[in-house]
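Researcher: Please predict.
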Amino acid sequence: MNYFEGIKTLDELRKQYRNLAFLHHPDRGGDTEIMKEINNQYERLSKNLINTNEYFTDERKEQEHHISEELRQKIEKIIYLPNITIELIGSWIWITGSTYAVKSILKEEGFMFSAPKLAWYWHAGEYSKKSGNIHSMEELRDFWGHENIQSKATANQLN
């Protein structure tokens, strides 16, 4: 089965991976063999999309490979956490919801807390803010686009 059919960009690939991990990760009740296949397909397609991008320098290709792998690993580490919402905005992972109970896990995984946004975030590699502007979550979503997932525990509580 091709889990990433029709994917043409790294952003589409990363969003689809997060959705598939949400559905098939063993910590969420999914099947280990299916998750292994999803990981293999993700890795192959990620490498292909990066290596065939004519606009990427060799340095950028190496950076994108690193980011793709780190995003996959981070999502796998937190996808099972209850009562949180995982949101991918660009190459940043944002966590909202009932995070107080899982804050030690988020810290352990390298997530930082943004008090102005009341959200936890993670980004691959070094990052330094170049402007003094503070953007709202809505501004970030509008500029970079976003994908949002509620944990199954949260979805069940709403029903």
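Model: The radius of gyration is 16 Å.
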